[in-house]
Amino acid sequence: MSAESIQSSAAHGRQGRRSVPVARGGPLLVGYLLATVFVVGTLCAWQENVRPKLYVTLADKEYLRFQGNESTNDFFKLVLRDPNSNNLLVGARNIVYNLSIYDLAETTRLSWYSSDDDIKMCIVKGKDEDLCQNYIRVLAIPAQGSLLSCGTNAFRPLCRTYSINGNNYTVETEKPGQAMCPYDPTHNSTAVFVDNELYSGTVADFSGLDPIIYREHLQTEQYDSLSLNAPNFVGSFTQGDFVYFFFRETAVEFINCGKAIFSRVARVCKWDKGGPNRLKNRWTSYLKSRLNCSMPGDFPFYFDEIQSTSNLVEGRYGHANSKLIYGVFSTAPNAIAGSAICAFSLQEISDTFEGNFKEQSGLNSNWLPVNPLNVPDPRPGSCHNDSRTLPDLTLNFKKTHSLMDETVPAFFGSPILTRVSTMYRFTAIAVDPQIKTPGGKTYDVIFVGTDHGKILKTVNAESADSNKKVTSVVIEEIDALQTNEPIRTLEIVRTTQYDTPKDGSYDDGKLIIVTDTTVLAIKLHRCSSEKITSCSECVALQDPYCAWDKIVGKCRSHGAPRWSEENVFYQSVATGDHAACPSGKMAKDANVVERQGYRDLEYDPQRPFRDQPADKIQFNSENYNDKGPQITPDLINAQYTVETLVMAVLAGAIFALLVGFITGYFCGRRCHKDEDDNLPYPDTEYEYFEQRQNVNRIQAEPKLLPQVEEVTYAEPVLLPQPSSQNKMQHSPKNTLRKPMGHHHGVNSETLFQFQPDNYNNARDNYRGRDNFGTLRSHQVYL
Predict the structure, then answer these.
(1) Euclidean distance between the first and final Cα of the chain, in Å?
(2) What average pLDDT does this structure show over 364-368?
């Protein structure tokens, strides 16, 4: 190779290397950008934690309290309204309390203690003495003057029917409570009394491993994960021909992908009489479906664990009438702490049960919908005049196909309210349905209890105009408990008629709050508070209970005279603004104000503390005075939302990466050291130096197999020509090897015959040459 070619190739190699700059930070930058897009998309899809309009800390005179047995924990859990009087029946430990709605005063009590033998046997079985008591978990009023009560009875459930005569209770019947009442008082169970029959969802054994949905003589399949798989029952009600149960359970259809908890709704027919023969004590109409409470999107975020349900409410939503059931849901205990409120239409629940079934064809197969052509007739899960006459094909299909394929969607298209908080989760719910506002619109007012002792009062501001949209308004956050006890039950009760007016408003109901140790009763609203002094402040609350009375000049509650007259009472639940109200201190759009200055509620320094005396209401303002609440954007402009902080941090990180990348690139270009400077002799044009600069020299790979080196020598050797008389003998035709035995002379050798090793003494070191003197190829193994 010439010197010019060596120089040209070396120069070309150096030029090629310098002309391709490598962006070493590129993959890292792309990763950060993708993460940013994901987080931003998630934040945009997620509903914000809406701030309450009012923070309420109740003084002692603002609520009614019933303490029960102060020496021991009563474990209050059950509240039943006596329809024949203004009394509440509260189930507790060894006692059923009868309380007055007006003041929660105890009018009478029913004591029912476990026998000493039952308590001793319970302790012998390894249970704690506190649990070996009689905890009342089922209460029902079969008829006027009668009471049905079931208790755990030291892990030996019993049910009794009492006759009521004044303040006296007399036992009429007693029977075992297995499958009607749980053994363990901590188990979640439900029961509803329908047509003189008790329908229950509980466990039927001491260990709690036999879940059951039961009515006398009928039950679900025993130890069958396809029917019930470790359920926690939270509610039940009846409507039409069916009884509905709500629970959460381990999802059998997800078992091939791991363990997950799904929320369910199940139903049974009230006229079910069981099947023939061996199925005579089994439900023939039992079906279940999944409840879908999730944030919508391409990748929905699910709130999978239902915690509580409301009563069935009926009302007008948008421009159609619907029957709804509200429920509170949460994430798993070890997941991101989140809670949500979802509503479900009874019609959509029924449509799901009329849809496709779901099945698993093999043990390792996916769960897929069943072809409608494979569903037998009559259809499994329906009500029939006499289920004992159903064919075996229908009964066998129902036994293995109790799960429906379609899920029940949220009624408004998304949760009504979501909460992401490390401090509390939703535990209980109560709904005051169809509160009528001036102008005729109606709204459902929702009260939600938490495991931290707080109560949220909320409403969907879009529900009167649309059944497809959600605008969450949190009216109040109420802090009524002295301790952070979990709220077990919420119940809205009203007296048989309105009480006499007090300060321009009517006491039209109470919210009953039940914890393990306390029963509280508070007002449903605080419309008549002295802190609310202007029309704009009253309207901005967006509380369906409250409206501004322009004649009296006060904020009053619904039930007041002339309440339905829109020209007398000013209110706007949808916007929080009314054109007739003069501009005041409160922002026109309270939701906008809250989004501008959201702070996590648990760490709000402006919230009242428990030891702060006398103040009834704390508004979203830095300081409030006797003139009323002041909710203005100026008070919270210095605060930032969580989303804004996250975006600021991500933007700062990306900006720093870009600056570092650009700075490093230009510094590398300007401070680049030419590779020619590394040559020891720049003027020497040897390819050796070019090879030395090659940092990507290929390393010799280890020899896994013996390498074969083939050595071939092609050195011609002239041989003496044969005589003319032998030309014919050495013609190509005669070069073929002759058979042995004919020609044994010297000339019998062919042209390609090998010569002996001593041929040509000058070349003794060459072996195996042919007649041309060429050494035949031989292999040398290294």
Answers:
(1) 32
(2) 87
